[in-house]
Task: structure prediction
Amino acid sequence: MTPMPVDTRRDAAAVAAHLLRLSPAARLSRWHGMLSDLAVNAYAQSLARRKSRVRLLAFRDEAGEIRGLAELVLRPEHDEAELALTVEDAWQGAGRGRQLGRAAIAAAEQLGVRCITMQIMPDNAPMLRIARGCGAAISTAEGGDVALARKTCRAG
Ligand SMILES: CC(C)(COP(=O)(O)OP(=O)(O)OC[C@H]1O[C@@H](n2cnc3c(N)ncnc32)[C@H](O)[C@@H]1OP(=O)(O)O)[C@@H](O)C(=O)NCCC(=O)NCCS
Result:
């Protein structure tokens, strides 16, 4: 179950299929709002369009379907990246999210990214654990409904 790089355009349909399989609760945690299938599909297509700034890592099941995904969206200067993880409900709780997070951070460091941010709902205990476990500092603006995790990367 090693996370492997995904070709943002060639594997676009598999990425969209994974995101569309996310449960309502997972969609809410991922996007901080309820996205319809149409909106999830549009989001998946936007990843393919932003190919030069998007790096994806996934773990797949035995049939080759993507069941967990790490999305790194790089700033134009490639010095910072935003990270988001998704693991389908039936595959959660077995260390895959943590593994995807670590692999994505290692990939970002190889690209020379200096800082990785993650936007996490404050009640998202597994994602907060993953972020903290990776050494990210967590902050929440007063009254804010999203926690910001910032991970400073190893130099070069
Ligand atoms: C967040 C998510 C990716 C985690 O994936 P996962 O495969 O279930 O995560 P893991 O099994 O690696 O567990 C991560 C940590 O959370 C802990 N954990 C798991 N479920 C938990 C729960 N219900 N409450 C508290 N901690 C929990 C695990 O013990 C583990 O901690 P450890 O590494 O210290 O042992 C997954 O729940 C998901 O896709 N959620 C919906 C989308 C989302 O919220 N994405 C994040 C947006 S940034």
In short: Residues 4-111 form a domain with the Aminopeptidase fold (CATH 3.40.630.30). The chain has a mean pLDDT of 95.
